[in-house]
Amino acid sequence: MRFTLALAILPAVLLVYLFKKWDEKRPEPPGMVRNAVLLGMASIVPAVIIELALSAALGKNLVEAQGQLVNSFVIAAGVEEGLKLAVVLLFFYRKEAFNEVMDGILYTAAASLGFALLENVLYAGGNLIIGVARAISAVPLHATCSAIMGYFVGSAKMSGGAPIKLAAGYGVAVFIHGLYDWAVFSGGRFGFGPPEPLLGFAIAVGIVAVCAVITRVLVMKALKEDDALLGEHARPLERPLPYHLQHRGYGAPFGHPAFQPQPPAPYGMHQPYAGHVAPPQAPPHGWQPPHPHQYPQHPGPSHQHVPQQPWQAQQGYPQQGYPQQGYPQQGPQQGYPQQGYPQQGAGAPPPGYGGQGGGSGGGWPPPGSA
Fold it and tell me: Among 72, 110, 290, 321, which has the highest number of CB atoms less than 10 A from its own CB?
């Protein structure tokens, strides 16, 4: 019993891993893929209810006519593929993580494999032969025909034309799934003769093989289209930054919702790129850091290093220990007034200035003045 149960579960798990491996260049969050599988499993409940209701409404004679043609295409394939598509459209299609054509294949295949996993457990039960037969036919059929539909879903999301592409993808998936079921239900005779189960199984395996080739071709096509849309670079899986980098100015990984382009850091500092710390970059040839004492420090509160301006040595502004190049501070200089030294050629003396000769008015104006 345990071996049969493991056999029923293992094919779906391996195929989910395979589709994730194909999407490893720009992977999706693991929680999204897991949710797609779980929602696909849950969709089997409404599928059973709708299929039973349709069978009762259409009647046994119509459902089983021509090798169960209606049962294969309308009831089984139409309902199941419609519910898989509904899971993707309702829960994943509008998500920010759905941003590639390949995402349509991955999410649709994951939902389909969740459905197939639970269906396989219910059908196989304790029968080893049925478990093996479904492991190599039914489970891959669910994955491949839904993956083909998923290509149309991803293309509709990324390139537009959603109604037509979604309808086309759904129609292709229903046709493939219905043809498989018709071969199995009719025993390979399709209602034109007595059923032969081995013939029906052989036709079903052949359908799965063709679908597997088509799926691989569409996966490669989707990856090329994503490279054309997004660039050929790989995107790391979205993870939170380590704690020691969260407060150091580094940006989030590329594609993360919190990602913001960061301005280039000064030479010699680490620069963030795509969530990774780049090695220090060499400065340009001939670049040297400024000398810390190249400029005198301003006495103001900002304490910034600013150069002394020439006008501060004119118009009566005394120097306070900051000599300027070209403006000597020793003694009175002609044309540069210092405190206590009158200028030559001034119009009137300051109040109380005695001038030359020692008299109250003698000696002023100076000799030779007009």
Answer: 110
Residues in CB range of 226: below 8 A, 6 or more apart? 26, 100, 101, 102, 158
| Residue among 287, 263, 285 at smallest CA distance from 273 | 263
135: CB partners within 8 A, 6+ apart: 7, 8, 10, 11, 120
Give 221's contacts (C-beta < 8 A, 6+ positions apart).
Answer: 151
Extended beta strands in 224-311, E state: 272-273, 276-277
Write out the chain's pLDDT in tens, 370 residues: 677 788 889 999 999 999 999 999 999 987 999 999 999 999 999 999 999 999 999 999 999 999 999 999 999 999 999 999 999 999 999 999 999 999 999 999 999 999 999 998 888 766 888 888 899 999 999 999 999 999 999 999 998 888 999 999 999 999 999 999 999 999 999 999 999 999 999 999 999 999 999 999 999 999 999 999 888 878 766 555 455 444 444 444 444 444 444 555 554 444 444 444 555 566 666 666 666 555 555 554 544 555 555 544 444 445 555 555 555 555 444 445 555 455 554 455 555 554 444 444 444 444 444 5
Domain boundaries, given as residue ranges, for the chain = 2-230
List own/partner pairs for 11-14 with CB under 8 A and 24 or more apart.
11/120, 11/135, 11/136, 11/139, 11/140, 12/113, 12/114, 12/116, 12/117, 12/120, 12/139, 12/143, 13/117
